[in-house]
């Protein structure tokens, strides 16, 4: 399965800054705080995806509402953990279904 166009890291920080209204400095700060994870080219240029832009907008809204970066990071980690647990649960259920030859109706 190929990755969605939304997840391809092809957008430079300058364009991300224009699209979000966030300064490149603020975007780099969010990266330092481990809220966003751009890819780097061999030359060191940061590349972002449309999903990253959406995440940056959510972060900016939360910051504007007075939420601290460490709280945002904690919430992001919880969402990741919850998704991993849900994926693991689905995988185990699929294995059980296959083992016991259970078909969904």
Automatic annotation (TrEMBL):
Classification via PROSITE patterns: HTH_MERR_2 (PS50937)
Pfam family, one: MerR_1
Origin: domain of life: Bacteria
Keyword Secreted: no
Source lineage: Bacteria, Bacillati, Bacillota, Bacilli, Bacillales
Domain HTH merR-type: 10-79
Protein known as: MerR family transcriptional regulator
Keywords assigned: DNA-binding, Repressor, Transcription, Transcription regulation
InterPro entries attached to this UniProt entry: DNA-bd_dom_put_sf, MerR-type_HTH_dom, MerR_fam
UniProt entry tagged with the keyword DNA-binding: yes
MF (Gene Ontology): DNA binding; DNA-binding transcription factor activity
């Amino acid at each position: 399965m190929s990755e969605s166009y939304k997840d391809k890291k092809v957008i430079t920080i300058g364009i991300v800054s224009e699209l979000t209204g966030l300064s490149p400095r603020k975007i780099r700060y969010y990266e330092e705080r481990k809220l966003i994870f751009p890819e780097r080219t061999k030359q060191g240029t940061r590349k972002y995806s449309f999903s990253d832009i959406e995440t940056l907008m959510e972060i900016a809204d939360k910051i504007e509402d007075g939420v601290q970066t460490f709280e945002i990071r904690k919430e992001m980690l919880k969402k990741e953990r919850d998704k991993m647990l849900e994926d693991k649960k689905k995988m185990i259920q699929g294995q059980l279904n296959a083992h016991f030859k259970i078909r969904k109706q």
